[in-house]
Amino acid sequence: MSxxxxxxxxxxxxxxxxxxxxxxxxxxxxxxxxxxxxxAIVLDILMxxxxxxxxxxxxxxIVEAYMNQVVTLxxxxxRHQPPPRGKPHIPHRVFAHDETGDISLVFFRAQGGWVEKxxxxxxxxxxxxxxxxxxxxxxxxxxxxxxEADKFATLPLVEPVYPLTNGLNSKALxxxxxxxxxxxxxxxxxxxxDTLSGRKWPPFAEAMRQVHLPDDPDQGQLWSxxxxxxxxxxxxxxxxxxxxxxxxxxxxxxxxRQFSGELTDKVRSLLPFELTEGxxxxxxxxxxxLAAPERMSRLLQGDVGSGKTVVALxxxxxxxxxxxxxxxxxxxxxxxxxxxxxxxxxxxxAGLGIALLTGKMSAPExxxxxxxxxxxxxxIAVGTHALFQSDxxxxxxxxxxxxxxxxxxxxxxxxxxxxxxxTDLLVMTATPIPRTLVLTHFGDMAVSVLRQKxxxxxxxDTAVLSIGDYSRVVSRLxxxxxxxxxxxxxxxxxxxxDFGRGQRRGSLRRAAAGIRRSGRPGAWPYVGSGQAGGHxxx
Length: 538
Known about the structure:
By secondary structure, the chain is an alpha/beta fold. Helices cover 36% and strands 18% of the residues. The strands form 4 sheets. Strands 11-12-10-13-14-9-15 form a 7-stranded parallel β-sheet, with helices on both faces.
């Protein structure tokens, strides 16, 4: 379906805008996260909302300019005081005055004579910036704007502030924003007239202008009618997109699976516990989806310890009964490895071929797994993003299971499902999601919720300690290790320079050594980065 001609200005590449060269275009493409092979477009700039607004409308005399205020002053330039030769750490000072008092303008590392050109002695300039004091005298350090007296109109008295990235400054972005706003076409209104009038929302093009080129600071605030209208548009677009995705998923024919019950019965008999009522209900919903001719797209939501992995294993066993394969993908190698070691013993005893595939595997191991996936001897593949690289081919991938849904978006979910033919999709999340957010963010998926915990599952205690309480944590770990427990200590990352975490690792090793000396070799602590689970997490 072709895009209406009216919308074409919004989808122009930023590369086509005056002043955007190859280097800046590449920077903007990375900054806005454009899809691979595509460039950032005008709409990316328009939807890059300001994070705040600077009000430069306070035009007063120097005597009325107070500490930390942003003011705009009309100054007469008196003299320059450059730093002494060989002392670049001393700032370049420019002394100026108006009818009410004196002020100095401070510039650090000002080289090349540009300060003298911008502020010539004996002339007047409009200067805008934040007032500070030094040795009891008022000054502005690195003014935001210096404008000639007859070009006051070019100074933005109400200036939006945007999130930036290295290599992109605010003035360059402001130029692009102005050009983007000027290119917004007059579009037919899609919001009912009574909603617009009742909420006092402006039309789309006017809302963009008020947010990006405000005449008043309130126009750019989060609670302004213009921002509310654009937020509504964004949510509406998201809901329409999700419904289109859902309709495409449902309309895409799947495979009506048939189950013998042989493998699922074996897996059930090997479990050391009985499934909860919630697990049975979720399994029933999943089996019904798999048996239907439409492709499954289901979210399995449940707290840590509620048994989502077991439900996924049963679903993958059912898929193997229909002679198809399954893939379980986790966002980190640690979590993928944990899933694999949890389900491997049961899967293999039930006669299911299972393999772990990560990016760090050796070439011979990877070749063996690729062969097993291609000939179908591996029924379940567990891994990270490595599962869906171009060189990995399945004989018949029927079910994709994704853990930690919040790491993956709608487009990634579709890409994962496209790895096989008519592939069903099951997504697991431990994040508690209110029903309103489920409908908003997961509108393209059916939802199953596990509200119970398996019998005998120990309750999870959560405690918050200050950063200086490592000794308490280590002593508690020593006590639990002495009782035969296991523990994870999870850090955001590890590195040679990370002295604090090195201390923690050393403390845990000493704790483990003490336990081993006391004759408890079965207990161990693990320190690592990424996600952890299983026996315990700190």
